Amino acid sequence: MARVFSGVQPTGNIHIGNYLGALRQFVELQNDNDCIYCVVDMHSITVPQNPKELRQHILDVAALYMAIGLDPEKAILFVQSDVPGHAELSWILTCSSYTGELSRMTQFKEKSRNNESAGMGLFSYPILMAADILLYDTEIVPVGNDQKQHIELCRDIAIRVNNRFENTFVVPEGKYMKSAARVMSLDDPTNKMSKSAENIHSRISLLDEPSKIKKSIMKATTDSEGTIRVDWDEKPGISNLITIYSAFSGIDIPDIEKKYEGCGYGDFKKDLVDVTVEALTPIQERYAEIRKSEELKTALKEGAEKANAIAVPILRRVKKKFGLGVKK
Ligand code: AMP
Ligand code: TRP
User: Fold this and answer.
1) CATH annotation of 3-181+294-322
2) Residues of the chain with CATH 1.10.240.10
């Protein structure tokens, strides 16, 4: 039994990249591990949010967690800002981090490019993420490949503090999917699928209707060669679509390539629409039920209590190591 922690931002549009790259592993891990999954609302306010919408998005993501199969009896599900230790530990870690290492984070560089007034929250975002992880003595962090740099930073900070004060933190490991760890955008397969891209056909959201899924897939960028095979350098578009097909159907990539030998992109895309709709329909049905139930809020409240009970003694240990406070 390992302690597992991960989080997803409540920014709407949870897409198949989030699902295939990260959320899918959350479900697999919950049976044999001690799992904690969080809706990281404090991360989402690194950019301005409409308060009413944010509240709804928090519940949307929590309902999606349950709809994909996370069970509050097996895993702790909660909302980050309901446990005060995240913010508290984040400050302690801020004082053990360097501005140089934070300014090297690619996500920050991308988000702050050409923007002199990029927020401090965006800059220190990876420190709050490190606090999320270290607050629970986490051993394994299942995430998409795009978070690798943040996980490495978290490990560096933990090791740095341990070098000063022995045994303060457990040093966590990232866990990345072997396949579909990085789902690419449908309209520009050289970029990752993103919640915030302007073109809604660049992504498939978990709650998209079949007609929207069809439109997005049929419009997806491919190439002029016309053969269905994976070649990320020359054919990133079709490679991405084949990877999505494989992830949803459970069929290995070489078998898909064989199955579609001699077929055109149009036929393959039509089948991909079916495979995707079939995978998402049961999730959408469960989501609709859970989202309107009272059970959801009760589960989150109980989850926050359980998470807090784990966090409090760990935070006490950390504060003692740093010599903070007088309360025992
Ligand atoms: P976020 O929406 O940024 O909170 O991401 C939630 C999870 O989804 C994280 O573990 C990310 O690494 C993962 N993720 C986000 N975008 C993608 C993508 N295009 N492909 C694979 N995983 C992704
Ligand atoms: N930064 C992650 C993302 O954008 C979300 C996140 C916040 C997270 N805290 C975390 C992921 C802790 C894993 C562990 O996807």
Assistant:
1) 3.40.50.620
2) 200-287
Describe the chain by its helix, strand, coil percentages, rounded to 5: 55, 10, 35
Q: Does domain 200-287 have CATH number 3.90.1570.10?
A: no
Question: Is 195 an active-site residue?
Answer: yes
Q: Does the active-site annotation cover 111?
A: yes
Write out the residue limits of the CATH 3.40.50.620 domain(s) in the chain: 3-181+294-322
Give per-10-residue mean pLDDT for the chain (328 aa).
96 89 92 98 95 96 96 98 98 98 92 84 97 98 92 98 98 85 92 92 96 98 95 96 96 97 96 98 97 95 98 98 88
Contact between 77 and 30 under an 8 Å Cβ cutoff? The reply is no
Q: Write out residues with Cβ below 6 Å of ligand 2.
A: 5-7, 9, 40, 43, 129, 132-133, 141, 143, 147, 150
Q: What is the CA radius of gyration of the chain?
A: 21
Cα of 326 vs centre of ligand 1, distance in Å, is 40
The catalytically annotated residue of 148, 175, 195, 215 is 195
